[in-house]
Specification:
Layout lengths: L8 H13 L4 H12 L6 H12 L20 H13 L5 H8 L3 H11 L3 E3 L10 H20 L23 H4 L1 E3 L8
Antiparallel strand pairs: 1-2
Length: 190
């Protein structure tokens, strides 16, 4: 049972059912359960849900089977699949792998971080210092624009700018999409 250390969840549900049979209100049941179990008591919402179930005529104190993925299926087979997937595509997200392998995201994250020592690193978009070749190219671009402007007097009228922002080129890859899984031994990005 999930929650704050509910080692006695079955016992608490039995007592909730007992209070219901004694025609106690849900609020009285909450108060009595808190007095009895203290910090290990089910949450108020859980007590109300169980009380409502008994009111609908449900007799069992067993929890209902929950559909969906198991909480954790961390095993050697899954670890091998994750290793192979990361080797093929370092930009794969935890969500993509969780959907692909049919497990929860936390299991994939634990495998990547704890088993492989990986961490997600995003690449930088703007270099902090330009190389000599990059500086030379930028000077050439500026000279080409000046030369074109001197030949075509209407060039400045054909440039569209909004909010003082120029769009040089469009790169659909976002910083998050470009992030890769790297281990401590991986070479530094450039």
């Amino acid at each position: 049972m999930r929650g704050r250390g509910h080692t006695n969840g079955m016992e608490q549900r039995t007592n909730i059912k007992f209070c219901f049979k004694l025609v106690k209100t849900a609020a009285e049941t909450v108060e009595m359960t808190r007095q009895l179990y203290g910090d290990n008591c089910l949450s108020c919402a859980q007590i109300f849900r169980w009380y409502a179930r008994f009111k609908r005529g449900v007799e069992t104190i067993e929890g209902e089977a929950r559909p969906g993925r198991p909480f954790s299926v961390r095993n050697e087979g899954l670890i091998a699949k994750v290793r192979e997937r990361i080797q093929k595509e370092r930009c794969a997200t935890v969500r993509m792998m969780a959907d692909e392998f049919g497990v929860n995201r936390e299991t994939i994250r634990q495998i990547l971080v704890e088993d492989f020592g990986k961490r997600k690193v995003a690449s930088r978009f703007v270099p902090h210092s330009l190389s000599d070749d990059q500086r030379h190219e930028r000077v050439q671009y500026a000279k080409d624009i000046i030369k074109t402007a001197s030949r075509n007097k209407n060039l400045w009228n054909s440039i569209v700018a909004e909010d003082e922002t120029w769009c040089f080129r469009y790169d659909p890859t976002t910083k998050r999409q470009s992030a890769e899984w790297k281990s401590p031994a991986s070479p530094k990005g450039k």
